Amino acid sequence: MQPARPTLRTLREDLELALPSAQKPLDELDHPLLVKARELFGDDEAGRERIRAIDDEILFKVKVQRWRGAVWTDTDLDLPWLIAAGQREDGSLEDFYAALETSAQAARARYNADHRQPLTSKTYVGHLLPDQDDRDRYQLEAGTRLVRRLATAIRDLTRGSLHDGHEHAADFATFRLGILVRADEGHETYVAVRITGSVPDDLTAVVLRHVPGCEATDWYPEYALPSRSLLPAEQAWSTLMDPKAAAELLNEE
After folding, report:
1. Per-residue model confidence as pLDDT tens digits over 17-59
2. What pTM value is reported for the model?
3. What does the pLDDT look like over 74-86, one tens digit per residue?
4. Helix (H, G, I), strand (E, B) or coil at 136
5. Would you say 6 and 26 are in contact if contact means Cβ atoms under 8 Å apart?
6. Reduced to 3 states, what is the DSSP secondary structure of residue 130?
7. SS3 108
8. Which residues are CB-contacts of 97 (< 8 A; sequence separation ≥ 6)?
9. I need a surface site. Which of 117, 160, 204, 235 has the fewest CB within 10 A?
């Protein structure tokens, strides 16, 4: 399951947080309730308590300190959303879960007044679920998530090839990425990057920019790898790696 994230309404109105740029995914925000939600829904063995007063959707409780929240899971994306949040007020009508039930009952009454086909449930929380703006924001963050995954994979593949001189590869959604590093006796360190599959030019530039110890402008197209020719679906580039950067990469372990 993916990390829990807040809806934009919850972020602004309930948590009173500013919307960061898309370079900061909402599932990484440092708020006690969001941290707790990620912990709770990041562990398949964790016990989760359903909010029984809500019967039109399956919602679960999240509790930490005085914060309380309601989480709904988008089963298509396997993605938990914090759709409402507030603070605990014992014995008060302002208690978060009591207030959520009351507002959901009122929303159900409004829905039934505006629609010919009435709801048979006692509550309605559809207006709290993620909307198109939430889905757009999630897709906007996809680029950040991919670049981060690429950067980590590239560093790991480069380090692995530095160890044994063989190509190390990883699979992504639409392509396969391979990296080969070889050092000769003259202390030059040759690096080749292979991409199998179709990727846009800007993604290729991102890949080459993240290879440690290599200048982004010094890559040259290759038409053969050291041990074989390229296949029709393959592209390759090569350059030289700074030996000091290579040593530092190995020393990270």
Report:
1. 999 998 899 999 999 999 999 999 987 777 899 999 999 999 9
2. 0.75
3. 999 899 999 999 9
4. helix
5. yes
6. coil
7. helix
8. 51, 53, 61, 68
9. 117
